[in-house]
Specification:
This protein is mainly α. It has 21 helices and 4 strands. The chain folds into 2 domains: 229 residues, 2-methylcitrate dehydratase PrpD; 108 residues, 60s Ribosomal Protein L30, Chain: A.
Length: 410
């Protein structure tokens, strides 16, 4: 008997009703994404307006990742927020309230993480999962917002997956391709959903088929897990303006500083991927600094708090002496726990999990504080942070959020 294609299983799984507690969690992720957009608005990415589209949709997928403070799923190694929320608002309808989009987003997170968690280490070494799995998340979000049935949802997922891509080579240059990947994933899911509405069918074995995504990008794909829970509940928030692989080092440094025990020289032990992505002792750009373990530790050693201001060219120059006192190395036992746990050991002090992970969660007050901090960084008054928190956490008007974003990005 032929097994049911994975995309067909996923499409059926996504038809489940979204429970109230999951919708509440989605509100926190919505506010977190709005905070990231507010903080990055000064980057002036995406000035070109896409005619006929709401929100200047060129901008939000870019801006949600610019500060490297977007939400993250550890085992899937991807960032859904910059893909899922623009997708949800792209498919808004006047008669639909925010609840519809919260449910759509929860299904988008579910699909994006479910697919991304099946990718193996070979995939992550070459391919950017926010892009490769992001197309599925966007398609699931838009299919839900548009009210597609199980079969049409499967077609949207399958056709989006048929053009999945996004290579990590972007890390070798100071470019904005990482943000472009989020936009491309969003745009692909939107287009695939419109195609499904027009009854354009898709290949449901696009993941596991003989010429499918696994065959092209993986060596040992993992089983797809479609459990009774919701994957958005497994998400981590990012308190600090750096690559997530640098967060365990920041967390350790903050704990040591609070205890009065952070002193040079600084010896960091961490997992292999953290070194692959973030062993940069001589950063020269903001992107370099956000992907530098050495700079991350120097930031905290200097009494700073890893906000966007701590990764500017001025901060890079000022912290060079402290960076020179940091050495980094792989700890095999920490690598063995990864990616289920993002850990580090600094000067002998070890953390298994990082602040913002489900094991060490942040709450509503923390996300509101993040919203205020990033709104200020992005040049918005405190009243706009309060407005965003009210609309995201307690509102039911998707149009009001769209209007707010359009004001921010005008």
């Amino acid at each position: 008997m032929t097994a049911e294609p994975l995309i067909a299983q996923l499409a059926r799984h996504l038809q489940r009703p979204v429970p109230a507690n999951v919708r509440t969690k989605a509100r926190l992720h919505l506010l977190d994404w709005l905070a990231c957009v507010a903080g990055a608005r000064g980057s002036m990415l995406g000035r070109r307006e896409m005619l006929g589209e709401p929100l200047r949709m060129w901008q939000p997928p870019f801006l949600g990742n610019v500060l490297e403070m977007d939400d993250v799923h550890r085992s899937a190694l991807l960032h859904p927020g910059p893909v899922i929320w623009p997708s949800a608002f792209m498919f808004r309808f006047v008669e639909k309230d925010l609840i519809v989009l919260l449910d759509a987003a929860a299904r988008g997170y579910e699909a994006m993480v479910a697919v991304g968690a099946t990718f193996d280490a070979y995939h992550y070494a070459h391919w950017h999962p926010t892009a490769t799995a992001g197309v599925f998340g966007s398609a699931a979000t838009c299919a839900s917002a548009a009210g597609l049935d199980e079969a049409e949802t499967g077609w949207a997922l399958a056709n989006a997956g048929s053009v999945s891509g996004g290579l990590w080579h972007l890390r070798h240059d100071d470019v904005r391709s990482k943000q472009w990947h989020s936009h491309h994933a969003m745009r692909t899911g939107v287009d695939a959903t419109w195609a499904a509405i027009d009854q354009v069918s898709g290949p449901l074995a696009i993941l596991e088929g003989p010429q499918g995504l696994y065959a092209a990008t993986c060596r040992e794909p993992k089983p797809m897990v479609l459990g009774p829970g919701w994957r958005i509940e497994e998400m981590s928030f990012k308190p600090w303006a750096a690559c997530r692989h640098a967060h365990p080092a920041i967390d350790c440094a903050l704990e040591l500083r609070a205890a009065g025990k952070l002193s040079a020289p600084y010896t960091l032990d961490t997992y292999a991927d953290a070194l692959t992505f973030c062993d940069k002792p001589y950063p020269t750009t903001e992107t370099d600094a956000k992907f530098s373990l050495q700079h991350a530790i120097a930031v905290i050693a200097d009494g700073r708090n890893a906000t966007p201001a701590d990764f500017t060219p001025e901060a890079i120059a000022a912290l060079a002496p402290l960076r020179a006192q940091v050495t980094v190395a792989e700890a095999p036992e920490i690598t063995a726990r990864y990616p289920a746990h993002f850990g580090a050991r600094l000067n002998g002090f070890e953390l298994v999990d990082t602040r913002g992970d489900p094991e060490r969660p942040v709450g509503e007050a923390d996300i509101i504080a993040k919203m205020h901090m990033l709104a200020e960084w992005g040049g918005l008054p405190p009243s706009e942070a309060d407005r965003a928190a009210d609309l995201a956490l307690r509102g039911d008007d998707a149009g009001a959020i769209v209007a707010m974003l359009e004001e921010w990005l005008s």
